[in-house]
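User: Second chain of the day. Same drill as before.
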Amino acid sequence: MGKKKASGPKNSKAWAAMAMVSGVAAAKGTNLLLDRFWKTSTKRNPPSNPADPDVALWEAVAWSALTGAGVALTKMFAQRRAASYYVKSTGQRPPQLAKKSR
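Assistant: Same format as last time:
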């Protein structure tokens, strides 16, 4: 019979760390890529603060939408990869992603 790995606070902390690190890394990497994309496509620096009244409305909306969607998607993909790695390493889902029985 296969040996089932233990779950508990230690695994929960490991998952929390994996999720946080993967999310932060994905967000930072995405911001760097989006900055380059913005500079290349508009020939301008991205707005440092889209709420600034001196930033054109189109530019504020476009930058906010681009960064919001880009960061959210890459963070989600990175955390899904971290969850897959966690499952392969421990044989079970992270506690925060465990399916609830009805």
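The mean pLDDT is 84.

User: Great, on to the next one.
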